[in-house]
Amino acid sequence: MAGRALLHRKRPYCRFFDAMKFIADLHIHSRYSRATSKSLDPEQLSFWARKKGLAVIGTGDLTHPAWTSELGEKLVAAEEGLFRLAPALEKRMENEIPSSCPGVTRFLLTGEISCIYKKNGKTRKVHHLILMPDMPAVARFQKRLDRIGNITSDGRPILGLDSHDLLEITLEVSERALLIPAHVWTPWFSLFGSKSGFDTIEECFEDLTPHIHCLETGLSSDPAMNRRISALDGYVLVSNSDAHSASKLGREANLFDTKLDYPHMVGAMKGAKGFSGTIEFYPEAGKYHLDGHRKCRMRCEPLETRERGSICPVCGKSMTVGVLNRVYELADREKPVLTRDVYHLIPLTEVLSELLNCGPATKKVISHYEALLHDLGPELRILMDIPLGRIEKSGGPLLAEAIRRMRKGRVIRDGGYDGEFGHIYLFSPTEKKILRAG
């Protein structure tokens, strides 16, 4: 995958922080979801949002009664449709957050639902992100869903509910609610997924399709890939982290230039002014970008997959058809039509991991990470906005060069496949030796 050109509109890094704008990550999870960190509580989420530079984060898991009860105890109302930590909790956290990371995090009521059902002769497995304007709407939503399935065993409940019917219930609960099809290309659980999805939005939502306004691209695709499909031209493309631990917040996020409240944010995601663009993974880093079979350590580009008939040459079983292949299958134009800004980033701990030759969760990396935040400010500001001269003064010339390459898109790509995350590198081993020697 090394050297494949990025198809996105180049933007200078970065004027975003110069204006009264903000960043939001709306698809996350709590500790009540399976396979998530047990430390995911409102305090930790707010703490990490400050360190990342996020003004608004989703609550996640709004269908889970125990979680929403905790939110009711720990959050207080802020701007319309938004919440913040109770003052006593905020004060308790303040000493732990670097003074270079100012602000107060807002929460917006969100949750993910897994719909598994049969439609048109095929089993469908589709995930959706739900946004709600207030707690009474959440209570009504929980009451409706509790009649259909178990909403207490998992923060992301699995329901035998048609996506069309989920959207209908959502709108009946509150006309101000918003349903966003989640990570729409993921093979196993998404609107367009190769294993269980649909070829069109209309096939999924039928007469309620006009109530779908935006789509979440997911970690394994970016706006440029989605904008090769003209049928998606009328939809806003959003990006979120889908974080299962607080430190993963903001790995993808949304850029807003609106008033800070629920009505203006939702209005922007429905196509009104104020949705400026997205922060993206390099899509090759996502774990379903390419086709392949993880058990056999076999991955393929789409053309090779078709030549092999989607069969793994090692074991003879079917390979998982990834996001890039599925996009190619539905694309009807060669060049994307982009109208909003796109910033491809690499998490700062991963940049430091490459430079320091140790894992991103090691003490050495975390120590450097915390020092940079204390000196320069929130992570996203470092990656997007801080002048390279300041980065060099604080973190050294190799870090400054790494950030420069990331901002320019000069990266080496090692694509993910079949549930295996890919890797994005900034230097070849030889380059690092030469630069260190210089």
User: What integer is the average pLDDT?
Assistant: 94
Q: How much strand?
A: 15-25%
**Main sheet overview:** 9 strands, mixed
How many beta-strand elements? 17
N/C terminus separation: 29 Å
Shape: globular
List keywords for this structure.
single chain, 438 residues, alpha/beta, 16 helices, disordered N terminus
Give a brief outline of the structure.
The chain is α/β, with parallel strands linked by helices and 438 residues long. The protein starts with 21 loop residues before the first strand and ends with a helix.
If you had to describe this structure to a student in words, what would you say it looks like?
The protein has 438 residues and is of the alpha/beta class. The chain is 32% helix and 18% strand. It is built from 16 helices and 17 strands. It has helices at residues 42-52, 65-74, 87-94, 135-146, 163-173, 201-205, 223-226, 262-269, 302-307, 323-330, 348-356, 363-376, 379-384, 388-395, 397-408, 429-437; strands at 22-25, 56-58, 75-77, 83-85, 106-119, 122-132, 158-159, 178-181, 214-216, 236-238, 253-256, 275-281, 291-293, 298-300, 341-345, 412-414, 423-425. The strands form five sheets. Strands 1, 2, 5, 6, 7, 8, 11, 12 and 15 form a nine-stranded mixed sheet that branches. A two-stranded antiparallel sheet has the order 3-4. A two-stranded parallel ribbon has the order 9-10. The longest helix has 14 residues, at 363-376. It is globular. Mean pLDDT is 94; it is low at 1-12.
